[in-house]
Amino acid sequence: xxxxxxxxxxxxxxxxxxxxxxxxxxxxxxxxxxxxxxxxxxxxxxxxxxxxxxxxxxxxxxxxxxxxxxxxxxxxxxxxxxxxxxxxxxxxxxxxxxxxxxxxxxxxxxxxxxxxxxxxxxxxxxxxxxxxxxxxxxxxxxxxxxxxxxxxxxxxxxxxxxxxxxxxxxxxxxxxxxxxxxxxxxxxxxxxxxxxxxxxxxxxxxxxxxxxxxxxxxxxxxxxx
Length: 225
Description:
Hydantoin_racemase-like, alpha/beta, 4-stranded parallel beta sheet, Asp/Glu/hydantoin_racemase
């Protein structure tokens, strides 16, 4: 059976399961015969990637031999952190498509030349986020990032406050920065992204479904009509 490996570059198994559940639900709604989704959590690093050091550790952890061995058995791979850590090195070792949730969601947001913003919880990654957007050639479309206040880890343990804080960041992207679409920037923010997608008439893009769509295309698997 065709299967996708979703790698969580942070050490939270709860985050892994949440992202896997989102991917499975999306694929089940989009396809008549969806591929299976299997999660893998890195063995070292941080429970949430909040700064450049965490991102660097995650890049190494994603390329751990055990993770690479699992990825080699899959038909497609998703790297489930917004900075897409370690993705180039992972691709170099594999013969299957590898998609990162960061690049996938940003590219989708910029579809048709739309101006887009990013709403997330990690201000210490502001420059890294902007740099990744520029590397994709989408700097001219980017209206900037808006961040929640307070400790990202603590906020992640309070779903209602997380959603409220991200909603404020989305509002700022739309009404102050002029964005026409907003990306929710982070794998651990997947459930909040789903809720916010239902609250706003403007596109609010969840990173995990965006990665699924990009991977289906790369795997040449069509979505159901």
